[in-house]
Design brief:
heterodimer, A: alpha/beta, Peroxisomal Thiolase, Chain A, domain 1, nine-stranded mixed β-sheet, 35% helix, B: mainly beta, OB fold (Dihydrolipoamide Acetyltransferase, E2P), five-stranded antiparallel β-sheet, three-stranded antiparallel β-sheet, 1 helix, 8 strands, globular
């Protein structure tokens, strides 16, 4: 297998306005993010020869990437839309890196946007997302998306003695990061008590254990490491990547408490030649607080079952030893559905460029990013760095 | 507003017919004797294609559960319990736990199947607490 280590770099990154953004539909937000990312990369749209997108729920197009290329009047030689839920962003990035290395394209844009807040009713948004359940053998029983993740949380609590307070600490840490991010949707500090006193949605998950419902989009520009040095910003290199795909429906998962993040991270660490202790920050998929706890364990930051005590002792907020979700994450920055991890990606690019302002992690040279889609189903781990070697 | 209805078709009709008759049926591999759920065109253990159906005991244990406080649609009345049930025969299935106070449900507790009308023509398996572990 050809190693992708240090072969490609991210040279452009941009978020659209996020949060509640009425007036632009998902495809317009996507186009906006693409144009902003090209401007950040200092290139013209005609230089883009690869485009990868993910369809939206609020304004779906049958052939989404083709429709976006047409909208922008770009005529790529490499063009497709993919969908693996919240795991789509990093999984696509893996494909894009391979495409650059094999010469399928020289400059690839990855872009996604959706308007779950303004483009769908509350009920439509709930139903669209919960359709991840098996149509014959799960959905009839009325599981909501929080309910699916509550099943994972409850199993972890029963097996390892994890407490609702541990989950709450994750929400508090993400909010503390968001307080420093003027673009975040939710910026008022919260406490563990606030989380535990918020409305119960699906036991043990309270309202503040659940991610936001947002509008927003983001785009990045990727090219080869050789070309990357000619762009205006310092390149951010892909050092490691790995995937693991275990199931789609939670009732078919091999384990409720260990995920395929175990497999995806092993591959990523091996490619990068790095381990969890080398990371100055981590951006971990946080659609609900328990996912972060499981990911910390499966990604090797602590032992299985010790996620709760790890969070309490090490700290994952801005002052913690391992800052997690430095932009505020899906819990406090924004969560427009499938594009969610795009914001963890753009944030990581800014952290590694050392341009993250008030949120800057001191001496950030290497960071780990992890996303999962479905119900802890499709996992991709990325390791990004300031240096190619 | 009604609850979400499963589409009965092909392979799954044997399962749903059983539900209407008050029997929980699971697919059984005639080659390796594995029992599986949901129904597939092959045995997920040995990849054999020679499958039939067996009647399950209807007994199991709760692998995990949640009390849903905000309903999926107006068809569901809160609070309701969504659970993963480990059947005595091995397979795990999602279902509801009914006819009990949610405080009595714990991971590991014993349950037994009952059938609940989802429409005029279809019943689905749900579970009650049993006194067995």
């Amino acid at each position: 297998m050809i190693s992708l280590r240090g072969k490609v770099a991210l040279v452009g990154a941009a978020d659209s306005q996020v949060g509640i953004v009425p007036g632009l539909d998902a495809n317009e937000l996507c186009a906006d993010a693409i144009l902003l990312s090209l401007s950040d990369a200092g290139i013209d749209k005609d230089q883009v020869d690869g485009l990868i997108t993910c369809n939206s729920m609020s304004k779906p197009m049958l052939y989404h990437a083709e429709a976006m290329a047409e909208y922008l009047q770009i005529f790529p030689r490499y063009c497709f839309a993919a969908g693996a839920g919240g795991g789509t962003t990093f999984s696509i990035l893996h494909h894009a890196a391979s495409a650059i290395v094999t010469g399928m394209a020289d400059i690839i844009v990855i872009a996604m946007a959706d308007c779950l807040r303004s483009g769908l009713s509350r009920e439509q948004s709930l139903l669209a997302q919960s359709s991840t359940g098996h149509p014959q053998f799960e959905q009839p029983y009325g599981p909501t998306v929080p309910a699916y993740y509550a099943l994972i949380a409850q199993a972890h609590m029963a097996k390892f003695g994890t407490l609702p307070e541990h989950f709450a600490e994750i929400a508090v840490a993400c909010r503390a990061h968001a307080v420093k991010n003027k673009n975040a949707q939710m910026r008022d500090p919260i406490t563990v008590e606030d989380v535990l006193n918020s409305r119960m949605i699906a036991d043990p998950l309270h309202l503040l254990d659940c991610s936001l419902v947002s509008d927003g989009g983001a785009a990045i520009v990727m090219t080869s490491a050789e070309r990357a040095v000619d762009f205006p910003h310092p390149p951010v290199y892909l050092l490691g990547v790995g995937e693991g795909h275990n199931h789609e429906h939670i009732s078919q998962a091999k384990s409720l408490t260990t995920s395929a993040a175990l497999e995806s991270s092993k591959q990523a660490y091996a490619m990068a030649g790095l381990g969890p202790k080398d990371m100055q920050f981590a951006q971990l998929y946080d659609c609900f607080t328990p996912t972060v706890l499981l990911e910390l364990e499966d990604l090797g930051f602590c032992k299985k079952g010790e996620g709760g005590p790890f969070i309490s002792s090490v700290g994952i907020g801005p002052d913690g030893s391992l800052p997690v979700n430095t932009h505020g994450g899906l819990l406090s920055h924004c969560h427009p559905g499938n594009p969610g991890s795009m914001f963890a990606l753009t944030e990581s690019i800014w952290q590694l460029r050392h341009s993250a302002g008030k949120r800057q992690v001191i001496n950030a040279h290497v960071g780990l990013l992890h996303a999962q889609g479905g119900i802890m189903s499709s996992h991709t781990t990325l390791i990004l760095g300031r240096d190619a070697s | 507003m009604s609850r979400i209805q499963p589409q009965v078709s092909g392979l799954s009709s044997e399962f749903f017919d059983g539900c209407n008759e008050g029997v929980l049926r699971l697919q059984h591999c005639k080659s390796c004797r594995a029992i599986q759920f949901y129904p597939r065109v092959f045995c997920k253990v040995c990849s054999g294609r020679n499958l039939d159906w067996v009647n399950a005991s209807g007994k199991g244990n709760v692998a995990s559960f949640t009390v849903v406080r905000k309903a999926l649609t107006e068809g569901y009345k809160v609070p309701y319990i969504v659970a993963l049930i480990d059947l005595k025969e091995g397979p795990r299935m999602m279902s509801n736990i009914v006819n009990c106070e949610s405080e009595l449900v714990t991971v590991g507790v014993g349950v037994r199947v009952v059938f609940s009308a989802w429409s005029d023509t279809l019943s689905l398996p749900v579970f009650e607490l049993s006194n067995e572990r």
